[in-house]
Design a protein that fits this description.
- Strands 1-2-6-5-4-3-7-8-9 form a nine-stranded mixed sheet, sandwiched between helices.
- The protein is an alpha/beta fold.
- The chain is built from seven helices and nine strands, in the order βαββαβαβαβαβαβαβ.
- Helices cover 37% and strands 16% of the residues.
- It has helices at 17-23, 55-71, 82-91, 113-121, 139-152, 166-177, 190-195; strands at residues 5-8, 31-35, 45-48, 75-77, 98-100, 124-128, 155-158, 181-183, 198-199.
- The chain has one domain (5-199): Rossmann fold (3-Layer(aba) Sandwich).
- Helix 1 (17-23) crosses helix 5 and helix 2 (55-71) packs parallel to helix 3.
Length: 205
């Protein structure tokens, strides 16, 4: 599979309807994609975690990633925080579809070596709502990216969101949409459960 670049405007047949559905006027005016566009048609699980995560949840996150890999479940995320990156390492060893969304432009981006084989195999899509001038991640681009990821997903799964942090605020917004948001059963996630997050059970989509 080629990593040729695709520019998706709302008029493009591959531009996801879900972005307009969930984000309304905040939907990106264009997406830059590299990889297999057909992955956008699959129901994906979005994976998030705060940068700081309790050790017990880090271990469970690795087990979850292994389970998702074995299930062949399509997964989408920014994969920026340490826990998210560890999950991505596990997922890249599998055969399931993946969508990776950096919080920066991917135009003229040197594709990391670990992405090259999945791209060739047609099971990876790199996706960004940012143009060529946005070469660095900022807090603003990270939030925009997270909203895009959540909008594209069928279900959002949050390993951990630190109380009072940006990830918790993001989760509150996703819950306000009415989109399913799950988390792991843990005293460390009491804040998310109190907000309305569902506790993930085995087999939950």
């Amino acid at each position: 599979m080629s990593a040729d670049q695709h520019n998706l405007t709302p008029e493009h047949p591959a531009y996801p309807h879900a972005l307009r559905q969930w984000l309304g006027e905040r939907a990106p005016s264009a997406l830059v994609a590299r990889g297999n566009l057909a992955i956008l048609e699959q129901p994906a699980l979005a994976l998030f975690s705060s940068g700081q995560c309790p050790a017990a949840l880090i271990l469970r996150a690795n087990g979850l990633a292994e389970q998702l890999r074995q299930e062949g479940r399509a997964v989408i995320g920014g994969f920026h925080s340490p826990v998210e990156r560890e999950c991505l390492t596990v997922l890249l060893r599998g055969n399931q579809p993946l969508i990776v969304c950096p919080a920066r432009s991917i135009e003229n981006w040197r594709i990391p070596s670990e992405y090259r084989r999945p791209l060739r195999d047609g099971r990876l899509l790199l996706l960004s709502p940012f143009g060529a001038t946005q070469r660095r991640m900022t807090e603003e681009t990270a939030l925009t990216r997270n909203l895009v990821v959540a909008a594209l997903a069928k279900t959002v799964l949050v390993i951990h969101a630190a109380p009072g942090g940006k990830t918790e605020a993001f989760c509150r917004e996703v819950l306000a949409w009415g989109k399913p948001l799950h988390t792991l059963a843990s005293e460390h996630n009491a804040n998310l459960i109190a907000m309305g997050a569902q506790v993930r059970r085995a087999g939950v989509n």
